[in-house]
Amino acid sequence: MVKVKTNKEIEGRLIAVEGLDGSGKSTQIRLLKRWLELEGYKVFFTEWNSSDLVKKATRKGKKKRLLTPTTFSLIHATDFADRYERQILPLLKGGYLVLADRYVYTAFARDAVRGCDRDWLRKLYRFARRPDITFFFELPLEVALGRILEGRPALKYHEAGMDMGFSKDPYESFRVFQGKIYEEYGRIFKEFPAERVNACDPSELQQARMRETVRRLMDLKKFKFKRGGKA
After folding, report:
1. In whole angstroms, what is the distance from residue 93 CA to residue 83 CA?
2. DSSP states of 11-31
3. 127 φ, ψ to 5°?
4. 121-164: pLDDT as tens digits
5. Is residue 6 situated within a structural domain?
6. Residue 18 is part of which domain span?
């Protein structure tokens, strides 16, 4: 088990984005990353479900539809723990700004909708430090659904929540699944602090507000590369 240091003991800072599929959070966090890089700051980017350690097991389990809600949750927790220990925590200790496209709140939302106990989920991820800034991208459910479904030839089985038996129609199942996740996010961000972003605003305005928030809440000069490009 990772022994978590407090935010004051770790020089780096963690910024996470959360929200429904189609909210534009991935685009905005990548724009933020590019801006910070161009300004000469030490930046590391990580995204949900991207550990090489469990990709094969996840792919096999999904293909054969072997994953129960608890198994699905534990696989994602393993993926996250691997990235946390190998990437996120070392870079934070090294004084980097770590940008996360989805964080533990994704598990809290999706796994709770799949039937996992909320308290159990929070204990499962208790080793992970809280982000210094969490941006939660808010937009109406129907707008998010429209963005995702527009031009999409097919939905994947688990992406559509077909494993939950909401509907035999993948598009209807997806709508129900995303609706429940939407409601769960509402509960989560009453419990945990977040900077709310209106995902219906123009992209340029969203990005400007994110940059302003980062400047306001963080002492960015601490994360500048020294001359010669070294940390």
Report:
1. 14
2. SSEEEEEEE-TTSSHHHHHHH
3. -70, -20
4. 999 999 999 999 999 999 998 898 888 888 677 788 888 888 88
5. no
6. 13-219
